[in-house]
Specification:
Blueprint lengths: L7 H22 L7 E3 H8 L3 H9 L6 E3 L2 E5 H10 L11
Antiparallel strand pairs: 1-3, 2-3
């Protein structure tokens, strides 16, 4: 049986590599849910809106949904499309 000695430098390199991998994973998710279908409470939390506002988005057709057995589901892609479609860019011009 071969014995392998791990040095402090090996552990330090492993720690740095592990931290970089975790940072890369967190950055790739960028705080967004990883699930494709979200329930109403998840959408409200994600967008910071009330149940009434979410209902208005459904009723006026702004946010598509799917109803299965009385539970409403929202496609993550539809939420992103809605946000992009309602994106505003204000331009401020300053006199020199």
């Amino acid at each position: 049986m071969a014995v392998e000695i791990i040095t402090r430098e090996d552990l330090d390199r492993f720690r740095k590599d592990l931290l970089e991998d975790i940072k890369r994973l967190l950055k790739s998710n960028s705080g967004q849910p990883t699930k494709k279908w979200l329930k109403s409470f998840e959408v409200r939390k994600l967008l910071g809106i009330s149940p009434g506002t979410l209902q208005n988005l459904r009723v006026n057709g702004t946010l598509p949904y799917t109803k299965v057995g009385g539970v409403l589901y929202y496609d993550q892609d539809d939420i992103q499309k809605m946000l992009q479609a309602n994106k505003f860019q204000n331009r401020v011009f300053q006199d020199s």
